Amino acid sequence: MRRRLAVSIAVLVAFTAVLYAFFSTLIFVPEKQIVVIGKTMDDTIEFWKNVKEGLSAAAEEYHIKYEYVAPQTEKDIEEQIALVKDVVLQKPDAIILSAADSELLNESVRNIQAAGIPLVTMDSGVDYSPAVPFVGTDNYNAGLLTAEQIKTFLEPGKKVVVLNHYSNAQTGAEREQGIVDGLGADLVAGTYNCYASDGEAYEVTVDVLGSGATEIGCICAINEVVARGAARAVSDLGLSGSVKLAVFDSSQELIRFIENGTVTVAVVQKPFNMGYLAMKSAFDLIHYRNIPAETDTGIVIINKNNLFTPENQKLLFSFQ
Fold first, then answer.
1. CA torsion 105→106→108→114, rounded to 10°?
2. Residue 22: which pLDDT band, with cuts at 50, 70 and 90?
3. What does the alpha-carbon distance between residue 114 and residue 64 come to, in Å, rounded to a whole number?
4. What pLDDT score does 318 carry?
5. Rounded to the nearest 5 degrees, what angle is found at the Cα of 232, between the Cα atoms of 229 and 275?
6. CATH 3.30.750.24 fits 139-268+306-311, yes or no
7. Domain residue limits, the chain
8. What is the pTM of this model?
9. Alpha helices in 38-137 (DSSP H)
10. What number does CATH give the domain 32-137+271-289?
């Protein structure tokens, strides 16, 4: 009797499994469509490569279909505004926006909200009220921490020059303000807008250091693009080590500059986390879940001494 009962249960379980498999194939759940509007399509910038890795990982995990669109460079503000208009007309389930200009993209944000499309800002937000959910680095605090690092190696009587990638971007404005506030105005010899150009950063660095300005003890370059331009200039001028260099972000080129002493300290963001958590946040908004107003994805201070620790290798060489 028990044997018959066991056989019957086994047959029933098997039959139920077959029915479930059959009917599940008839139920089609469409993937959610999310469009990510970035700052640049420049594949030489490793920061954005790693952001995309994070976006893709979350999209695969949450079964999201997404598209990444962006202007060719970060200074193509009007092109990014036009892209937002086009994307709104597509009516995706959600939009993730990295605003290249925190003021000029305000109207674009209003258009997205008027269309009823859930929005998350990533890396760089907007000066807009009510606030839009943001995922990225706490840039003002990162600027303060950078200033603290600079103070540990800046020689007495020396000053700092700050190279901004774009002063109207939230990232640029907040990092610069944090650095200036952290150092104090007396230690800042000047701030320069390099318009997201490594060539411009190179020229500014050469001009500043080649003009006989002997009081300059540190160049602070606050994103990957301007950092590599400044590092090349310091190296080409033969000033590695004598003029300190503090940078934001990392790349294989910047890692080599850390190794040879051209770069003294790097404030490294966590771009994979940024992409992953932005995609997850957009997914949660689509499903009417509450998300934090701000998600700080964190930074790590890198120098020659901790460059190759196991935890930092995972951050710096994630996809090599």
1. 170
2. very low
3. 23
4. 62
5. 45
6. no
7. 32-137+271-289, 139-268+306-311
8. 0.88
9. 46-61, 77-90, 106-114
10. 3.40.50.2300
